[in-house]
Write a structure and sequence with these properties.
Two copies of one chain form a homodimer. Chain A is built from eight helices and eleven strands. With 219 residues, chain A is an alpha/beta fold. In chain A, strands 2-1-3-4-5 form a five-stranded parallel sheet, with helices on both faces. A four-stranded antiparallel sheet of chain A has the order 6-7-8-9, with helices on one face. A two-stranded antiparallel ribbon of chain A has the order 10-11. Chain A binds a DNA duplex (30 and 30 nucleotides) through α6 and α8.
Chain lengths: 219, 219
DNA sequence: AGCGGCCGTCACCGTACTGTCACCAGCGGG
DNA sequence: CCCGCTGGTGACAGTACGGTGACGGCCGCT
């Protein structure tokens, strides 16, 4: 687990660092907010241990920046302030946890471990072929960066083809996987849908026809 | 955000439930550990508020089981015991946060909210899309700087969408996370609520519909 | 008790989607 | 060179899905 400790009180910083290392974590230590931002750009930390009172850039700001940049690090905020209002405010600012000084070291370790236990969720796969991108989670398709509006069936067909790059996919296979079972097996809807799909994708063609075989994309 | 409250003290349980609902969360309440395990199997809760002293199955065991099953729910443990050793032990058991009774309600809310934020990818404390800003802490929404008054459900739906910018969120997913289990699965309330939400947000539209898919904001 | 806001249900509507059909085009084989 | 077969295309219509407005029950507040 990768941890960045940001704490201007140097002795405390080193103590924390040493203690976390003893727990098997990979720890970097910096002593002000500006340095923290630099490091965070370079390294994908799992957890930030962040003092709230920092030179150059405050802990609140580091925390907010991290959120804005979409960095995956979880934040454990350290603070001297113990009032209820401040604790609530800190949590709502985007810190994932909060610990008030003075704290007991085992508790810090336990909280850091709790934060690091989960790493970020897996990235949703994006399907590509030439200059076409299909993102299943967003249900979007772009060609050369420009969005292409597809209907549900068209989208499903394209996704099915792009998921099998280079393979020939028969009309029957498409019927089985994209259409439901109530579909008339003698339907001509596959070729119609493919026609519409090709029209929306434009030139040059993404989907090739294999005579007597089916359709093929990518590869 | 979907929350399960597990607390055998019935009055307290209902008080917590009502309070969290007022904050726009979808809350289910059970009064013992066995029931908690059953519910957790069925519903993808974001946060568990878990009393440690429970009939049938203790809070510790519920917590451990949840971890073993790989359930994504974050756990906020409630306890009368306040000793440091116990707190550390609870955290190492898999609880994500710890609160000792008696507690202040705003702090409970803030902690539950903080945990809910962690259950997805990290979310910046203020959600933005175009000229819309949503502040979970203050429960406010503005459009082009002007406040927009939303009901709790509308707010929760918008927050859920904005926390997943660009992603298509299905009606089913919204039902799972924004509504609680008392909801008729064939309900049309999602589209109605979305209609009202869109009306209040005004033009240009913030939320797009993906046919057969769901809804998408931002991105 | 009265009131108002919230939200779930229902009925109705407009429209995008998609299946059908008729016809066309291209290719290959005889 | 022509015929037949396979695949592409354009028009049309039925439908299912999503949007909308009205209604009413419930709950909290005064």
């Amino acid at each position: 687990m990768r941890v960045l400790v940001v704490e201007d009180h140097e002795l405390l910083a080193r103590t924390i660092g040493a203690g976390l290392r003893r727990e098997g974590m990979a720890v970097d230590v910096v002593t002000d907010g500006g340095q923290a931002l630099e490091r965070m750009d370079l390294t994908p930390y799992d957890v930030l241990v962040l003092d709230r009172d920092l030179p150059t850039v405050s802990g609140d700001d580091v925390c907010r920046r991290a959120g804005e940049l979409g960095l995956p690090a979880r934040v454990l905020m350290l603070t001297a302030a113990a009032t209820l209002a401040e604790r609530v405010h800190g949590l709502d600012l985007g810190a994932d946890d909060y610990l008030t000084k003075p704290f007991d070291f085992p508790e810090l370790v336990a909280r850091v471990r709790a934060l690091g236990r989960r790493s970020g969720p897996p990235v949703p796969p994006v399907l590509r072929s030439a200059d076409v991108e299909l993102d299943p989670a967003r249900r979007t398709v772009t060609r050369a960066g420009r969005p292409v509006a597809l209907s549900p069936k068209e989208f499903a067909v394209l996704a099915h083809l792009l998921a099998r790059p280079g393979q020939v996919v028969s009309a029957e296979d498409l019927l089985d996987h994209v259409w439901d079972e109530a579909t008339n097996p003698f339907t001509t809807t596959v070729k119609t849908t493919l026609g519409r799909l090709r029209a929306k994708l434009g030139d040059p063609p993404i989907i090739a026809t294999v005579r007597e075989g089916g359709y093929r994309a990518g590869g």
